[in-house]
Amino acid sequence: MENILSKTPDRVRPAVNRKGRRAELRIRRLPVTFTSDIRRVITRFFDPGGETRIRNVVERVVGLDEEQVDRLVEDVFLRFHDRHGDIPKVLNENYRKAMAMIGQANDLTPNQGLLVGAYLTAEYSIESAALFNPSIVPHHNQRNLSAGAVRFIMSLRATGEGHVSSIVFRTGIIGADHRIQIDPCRRLTRPGRVVPDNQYEKALFLRTLQDIGVYERVANLVLDCLDDSFTSSQLDQAVIDARASAADKNEIEEALQDMLWLARSNYQLELAKDAEASEVVIFPQTSNESHGIEDLRMVRFVDDDGTVTYYGTCTAFDGYHVLPQLIETRDFVRIGVHTINGASARNKGMALFPRRVGGHYVMCSRIDGENLYIMVSDIVHFWENAELLKVPRSPWEFVQIGNCGSPLETSEGWLLLTHGVGPMRTYCIGAMLLDLNDPLKVIGCLDEPLIKPNEKERDGYVPNVAYTCGAMIHNGQLYLPFATSDMITRFATVSIDSLLNRLIG
After folding, report:
1. Which CATH number describes the domain made up of 2-38+126-189+274-504?
2. What pLDDT digit, counting tens, does each position of 429-473 carry?
3. How far apart are alpha carbons 232 and 195 in whole angstroms?
4. What residue spans define the domains of the chain?
5. According to the 3-state scheme, what is the secondary structure of 345-395?
6. pTM to 2 decimals?
């Protein structure tokens, strides 16, 4: 592990505490950065151009003699076995996918199949462009730590070729002395196995179909054949039956495809139980994620019965539309990825409170792309109503404001980090304090940014940006990982007491 010590504060601002005395708000930037590693790759199915091109590859492989095939397969294994956990499994899966696409039986020899799979597999460097927009929460494993220390897990947005974003993770320890130890990052990645949700609840499924505007008659035609709880395979069969019974198949096809799309958009990732956090990659799997999964805002959510669930709100992007999603897990071995639905589930930047307030789930959002809102719901996947919390008032946020992760509970209120967009599209990080029992009641706001990009941080993929998707409180300090110019990630700290004094004073 690497020991990270605080530097001298790089900026000092006056604050007024509750007794009227002047205080200092010291923001310390720490000498630790998270930078991208071009060596971290995953495998993807490679479609060279549709069925004809795939069929041509298969025919060319079949035309090789056995010795040539064996030699080419051996070369692939020698070059790629140490870059992936199970390269034969990857190649065989892509071989079977290709044969299904062209409607041909899997009747090649084992090595021919492996070679076809190799030609239809490509590596993707998940971090080749950037590693940014972090969030941080206490790790689910707090064993074997010294007194006063806490282990954390941090999510980051990794971006590669074509600006396709995925979610990766890092871990470390914050000691009682405020030192940060960062765990080494594994080069090997282990994307999870994708499986559809085991069960769908008919009432919730129908509610979501109504929300996205699926033709009600077609929805009922399919769902009336299913029980109150049904599986993905049962839905597939019901869709097949609906097509067979329809007088005009074209009339109902769009609605049927929307139903299948909704089912496929809600899935589970099954990870290896022994996988370390830095090996885990949540990579786009569905059509609505085809251009990336962006800006995970993690939160350690404690329900009224004490049950702990790690939720993360993020954005799926298909190149044209954004779709809010909820990632949920209790152990980082099985991770659910589900759509967030409802009239107010719009735009980017949703962040869940870490517990219920007044018996309800509460979420921060930016449904209109410009202002901050508070939403309340009894179902974590459905959000119908939103109330305005704050509009841009300070010059550094005149373009838009939004949250910078889930609120943090303090003795004085909910500490909500915000972002503001000002002149020259400069992104800064601010803070506000909300009432613990009524989050729509604002106790105080910083009148100037907590963090804005300095001269060393303003250049990058997207210039003049300081941004975070979540911070953490430990031993009286706010630990704030933040991205600079959509390129790299840094750490900063500030005393909670001094920050609260500034917000209350």
Report:
1. 2.115.10.20
2. 999 999 999 999 999 999 999 999 999 999 999 999 999 999 999
3. 10
4. 2-38+126-189+274-504, 41-125, 198-264
5. CCCCCCEECCCCECCEEEEEECCCCCCEEEEEECCCCECCCEEEEECCCCH
6. 0.90
